[in-house]
TrEMBL record:
InterPro entries: Cro/C1-type_HTH, Lambda_DNA-bd_dom_sf. Residues 14-68 form the HTH cro/C1-type domain. It comes from the Bacteria. PROSITE patterns: HTH_CROC1. This is Uncharacterized HTH-type transcriptional regulator MJ0272. GO terms for molecular function: DNA binding. Keywords: DNA-binding. The keyword DNA-binding applies.
Length: 76
């Protein structure tokens, strides 16, 4: 087993899914029960959603969570 020394970064495609569905940030926020500020923060990479919220978002778009959120390891 190899030891990882890099940091994990969550990559999200939320803005892509939202745009494809022609939703505003406000519309998406209301549909999943969060504030517009939360959507702005997630899309901007300033906030990583909880696992529960990530699943709620994926369920809303009827897709797999991995289609919207993925993890990448970055070297130090």
């Amino acid at each position: 087993m190899t030891k990882s020394t890099g940091q994990l970064k969550i990559i999200n495609r939320l803005h892509v899914y939202r745009a494809e569905h022609r939703l505003t940030q406000e519309q998406l926020a209301k549909a999943i029960g969060v504030t517009r500020a939360t959507i702005v923060a997630i899309e901007g990479g300033g906030y990583n959603p909880s696992l529960e919220l990530a699943f709620r978002i994926a369920r809303f778009f009827k897709t797999d969570i991995n289609a919207i959120f993925s993890i990448r390891e970055e070297s130090e």
